[in-house]
Amino acid sequence: MNRPIPVYIRRFIGEIAGEQYQTELPCPPPTILMQTLDNLRGKFDEQKTGYTVWNIVNIWKETRPNLGTADLSRLNLLKTGLQYEFCYYRKDCRYNSACFDNSIIADKFFLPQGHNSSVSSLAFHPKGKTMISGSWDNTIKVWDLNTGKCLATMTSLPGILLAGCSFRNLHPDSQLSAEAKNIMRQYGVIFDENDEKRWNEAIHRAFPEG
User: Fold this and answer.
1) Within this chain, do residues 102 and 123 fall inside the same structural domain, yes or no?
2) pLDDT digits over 25-43, tens only?
3) Would the pTM of this model clear 0.85, i.e. be above it?
4) CA distance between the termini of the chain
5) One-character DSSP codes across 183-196
6) Do 30 and 125 share a structural domain?
7) How many CA atoms lie within 13 A of 193 on its CB side?
8) Rounded Cα–Cα distance for residues 200 and 18 (Å)
9) Which H or E run contains 10?
10) What is the C-alpha separation between 6 and 89, in angstroms, rounded?
11) Rounded Cα distance, 184 and 87, in Å
12) Residue 27 burial by CB count (10 A; 0-12/13-18/19+): exposed, middle or buried?
């Protein structure tokens, strides 16, 4: 697939493939979309994979209630945006989290950049270097006026929905800054064994009987 599929076709494909049931079954059977992704694992050249990964991930986003069971390992995800997408779900005392091990990722597709709703207020710093914006998405963002970069996000809602997701051994072509990595860690992302230990300890504290 060398171009994005229209949204109405994506939703139709997802429903035909039964993707809407994948997070409800304890051992979901593989679908044709999963098998297609399996054939693309380890193939990172965008000229060969085109928009196939992008189309499949968007089908999942539009038909599954969440991406908690998604295996997105060993894929080129540089075109794929997952801001504000639940990449985990909790059932009883257990988290089911997506896997991104050995994939190529870019932090801009995981960390919220702009607002997800209308901007309701603006305020400029007296020195003219930064600006603060408030939005109906319940976030306040600080912006660098010279670069246009979002410097900070303050929110009462989770902006990074990656709790327990594994990002081990990311492909060297990944575009992930140390700052972004630290932010993702604060939301429960697992990059190494130490992160996994902290995550398991946090789960045990939250669900001591689990």
Assistant:
1) no
2) 666 678 899 999 999 999 9
3) no
4) 43
5) HHHHTT-B-SHHHH
6) no
7) 0
8) 32
9) helix 7-17
10) 27
11) 13
12) exposed
DSSP classification of residue 164 = T
Are 45 and 82 within 8 A, CB to CB? no
- The boundaries of the domain holding residue 19 are 7-111+160-206
Are residues 45 and 144 located together in one domain of the fold? no
> What's the pLDDT at 25?
62
Average pLDDT, the chain: 84
* Chain segment 40-82, per-residue pLDDT in tens: 999 999 888 889 999 999 999 999 888 988 999 999 999 888 8
Relative orientation angle of helices 7-17 and 32-40, to the nearest 10 degrees? 110
Chain position carrying tokens 């005392």: 93
Burial-class residue 146 by CB neighbours within 10 Å (0-12, 13-18, 19+): exposed
CA nearest to 164, candidates 128, 124, 197: 197
